[in-house]
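note to self: dont lose this again. the chain is below, predicted strucutre after it. 296 aa total, dont forget to put it in the shared folder this time
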Amino acid sequence: MNTLKMLALREWMQQGRAWLLLAGVPLALLVVTALFGRLETGDVSRDEITPALLFYVSGAVGVVGMCALALLVAALQSPGLARRDVQDRSIEFWLSLPVDHWRAVLVPMVMLLVGMPLLVMAVALLAAPVLGGLVTLRLSGASGLGQLDWLGYASAWAALGLRMAMGIAVGALWLAPLAALAMAVSAWFKRWGTVVFVGVVFIGAEVLSKVYDLHWPQQALFDTLRRAVEGYTLIGGANTLPAVEQLGTTGFGPVAQALLADVPVLLGGLVSVPFALGLGVAALGVWAQVLRRQRG
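---
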């Protein structure tokens, strides 16, 4: 029996519809806004915004925004995973199957932190040309669409997809310590778990910093969250924004290069002591959940 496939399929059967709604509803609202809403360019004249900039940025903002939404949903839902089998009274059924506790804990966690955001990103990526086309059509007309370098856009579009996919995987690794710890606390303290987690981790770090002048816990927490956000979104990609701003003169090539250049930077952060310590905390959190499941 392929237990990994079975557990992943369970997550899809239980959560797939909600994940598709999470991806589809906001994007549908964006499409409606692009069709009928009032589009403003701020203080910048429309003549100064090239069709290439309109087309790419409109779609990319949708992709990045949806990935940020997926990160928020994953962070909010992760504590509830630990007690789901108890709450829906399926724990006896799963314990009767030849499924080890480690897989029963890890697969739902991976599906939430990686699988769901990848699905949301894929849907957003498919909708990006639609959003970009509608915004460009409304602000620059059909002639604006005719001026686009479609081959160059395809390369930048693919680079965006690769960067976001890699970023989700890396961001999930950085988020894993907090998610696993929140799940473990929820498993042991039940409905008080979230309160205990927030109090110990976030408020505790603040107290240590302000009262005892011990700053490293708060700094470690901040760095972990920053790395996770950098992974799931384009925040932190210092070379990407300047390349996008020059779309009117340089074309899509520099944008694709900037996005791809951000991938080694993301991966480089994994070779560090904070990341290794974070994995240790994540492993401890998963072990605490396994121990709770073993005790019933």
